[in-house]
């Protein structure tokens, strides 16, 4: 078993390419995995100064230099899954910066193996900003 815990979130090459384009246009960004409401459960992408990370939000990791957060209640449902952020054609969430590009971010997932889960369970979570 590796000493390094597996990541909780990753991005496809298409996602990283779109992120580079969006960062050039908007500056530093952050992701927040929505828990429903207006845009379903889409990963929402915001300029860093436009979204306030709450004390209960959990930072799952980084996509390049872009932090990825999820609300604590959502995390309770998804904690056993690795989130893979992809990009597809279509309109993004109404407040997410990729919308005007004709693309939208999409969360895919897979369950952790028993070995991965044991390693992750031993790691502390990063909550809040």
Write a brief caption for the model:
This protein has 129 residues and is an alpha/beta fold. Helix content is 22%, strand content 34%.
Write the layout of secondary structure elements.
Elements (H helix, E strand, L loop, with lengths): L8 E3 L1 H14 L2 E5 L9 E5 L10 E6 L2 E5 L1 H7 L2 E9 L13 E9 L2 H8 L4 E2 L2
Parallel strand pairs: 1-6, 2-5
Antiparallel strand pairs: 2-3, 4-5, 4-8, 6-7
Task: Please explain how this structure is put together.
The protein has 129 residues and is of the alpha/beta class. The chain has one domain (9-120): Hypothetical Protein Aq_1857, Chain: A (Sandwich). The protein is built from three helices and eight strands; from the N terminus they run βαββββαββαβ. It has helices spanning 13-26, 72-78, 114-121, and strands at residues 9-11, 29-33, 43-47, 58-63, 66-70, 81-89, 103-111, 126-127. The strands form two sheets. The protein has a five-stranded mixed beta sheet. A hairpin with a 2-residue loop joins β4 and β5. It starts with 8 loop residues before the first strand and ends with a strand.
CATH architecture: Sandwich
Q: How many helix segments? A: 3
Strand order of the largest sheet: 3-2-5-4-8
Radius of gyration: 14 Å
**What is the overall shape?**
globular
Distance between the termini: 31 Å
Q: Tell me the helix content.
A: 10-25%
- Kindly report the oligomeric state of this protein: single chain
Instruction: Give the DSSP E fraction (strand runs of 2 or more residues).
Output: 25-35%
The count of DSSP E runs of length 2 or more, i.e. the number of strands, is 8
CATH top level class name: Mainly Beta
Q: Report the major sheet.
A: 5 strands, mixed
Q: Report the uncertain regions.
A: none
Overall tally of domains: 1
What's the order of the H and E elements?
EHEEEEHEEHE
Average the pLDDT over all residues and give the rounded result.
Answer: 88
Q: Quote the CATH topology.
A: Hypothetical Protein Aq_1857, Chain: A
The computed structural class is alpha/beta
């Amino acid at each position: 078993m590796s000493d390094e815990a597996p990541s909780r979130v990753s991005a496809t090459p298409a996602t990283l390419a779109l992120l580079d384009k969006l960062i050039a246009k908007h500056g530093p960004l952050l992701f927040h995995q929505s828990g429903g409401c207006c845009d379903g459960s889409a990963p929402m992408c915001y300029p860093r100064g436009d979204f306030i990370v709450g004390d209960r939000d959990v930072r799952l990791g980084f996509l390049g230099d872009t932090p990825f957060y999820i609300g604590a209640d959502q995390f309770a449902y998804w904690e056993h899954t690795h989130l893979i952020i992809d990009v597809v054609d279509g309109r993004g969430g109404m407040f997410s910066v990729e919308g005007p590009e004709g693309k939208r971010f999409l969360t895919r997932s897979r369950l952790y193996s028993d070995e991965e889960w044991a390693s992750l369970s031993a790691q502390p979570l990063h909550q809040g900003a």
